[in-house]
């Protein structure tokens, strides 16, 4: 029932749409095509998802902690992907997805703190998480290097997107 989950679900759909746009641009089959929400081809990802759903269903705090863990994992995966990528289109996508994940991590950790829970990072270095959660919310689109290229504060309410346009 917390608004943060609905807001982030909408943002994640925009992220999925941006990734799908790149898959289409480069003629790559969508590995999620035909799968119901929560069904993954990769068995390790499926197990991770199933565990997070089970853990997050225990309480609101557990759900917020699961959300933060997802965002930490996303950031680590995107950092690794950016380090090995040499495609400017994809790098811009990864940078924007990472920006979104940092914002989502801020939201989850902030709600945990407001509920008296200190979040313990499980994927990223504690210093990195502290740096992320104490920084201001990031707005606008960024380029392949992570530099702001468009200020679209509030664009989600006016049809803006968090990734490449189709």
What is this structure, in a nutshell?
With 166 residues, this protein is mostly helical. It has five helices and two strands, in the order H-H-H-H-H-E-E.
Question: What does this molecule look like?
Answer:
This protein is mainly alpha-helical. The chain has helices at 3-25, 43-56, 60-84, 88-114, 126-134, and strands at residues 141-142, 148-150. The protein has a two-stranded antiparallel ribbon with strand order 1-2. α2 packs antiparallel against α3. The longest helix is centred in the middle third of the chain and has 27 residues, at 88-114. The chain is globular and about 45 Å long. The chain starts with a helix and ends in a 16-residue tail after the last strand. 24% of the residues are buried.
Features:
166 residues, mainly alpha, two-stranded antiparallel sheet, 2 strands, 59% helix, 3% strand, globular, disordered C terminus
Question: Would you spell out the secondary-structure blueprint of this structure?
Answer:
Layout: H1 3-25, H2 43-56, H3 60-84, H4 88-114, H5 126-134, E1 141-142, E2 148-150
Antiparallel strand pairs: 1-2
Helix pairs in contact: 1-4, 2-3, 3-4, 4-5
Counting DSSP E segments of at least 2 residues, the number of strands comes to: 2
Low-confidence stretches: 154-166
Q: Main sheet?
A: 2 strands, antiparallel
Strand order of the largest sheet: 1-2
Q: End-to-end span in angstroms? A: 32 Å
Radius of gyration: 16 Å
Q: In one word, what is the shape? A: globular
Mean pLDDT: 90
Q: What structural class do you assign from the helix and strand content?
A: mainly alpha
Helix content: 55-70%
Number of helices: 5
């Amino acid at each position: 029932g917390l608004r943060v989950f609905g807001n982030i679900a909408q943002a994640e759909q925009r992220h999925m749409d941006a990734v799908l746009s790149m898959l289409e641009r480069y003629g790559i089959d969508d590995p999620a095509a035909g799968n119901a929400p929560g069904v993954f081809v990769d068995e390790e990802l499926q197990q991770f998802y199933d565990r997070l759903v089970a853990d997050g269903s225990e309480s609101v705090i557990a759900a917020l902690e699961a959300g933060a863990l997802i965002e930490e994992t996303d950031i680590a995966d995107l950092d690794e992907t950016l380090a090995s990528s040499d495609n400017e289109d994809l790098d811009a996508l990864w940078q924007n997805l990472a920006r979104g994940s940092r914002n989502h991590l801020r939201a989850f950790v902030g709600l945990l703190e407001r509920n008296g829970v200190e979040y313990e990072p499980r994927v990223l270095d504690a210093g990195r998480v502290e740096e992320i959660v104490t920084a201001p919310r990031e707005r606008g689109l960024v380029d392949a290097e992570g530099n702001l290229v468009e200020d679209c504060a509030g664009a989600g309410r006016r049809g803006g997107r968090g990734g490449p346009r189709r």
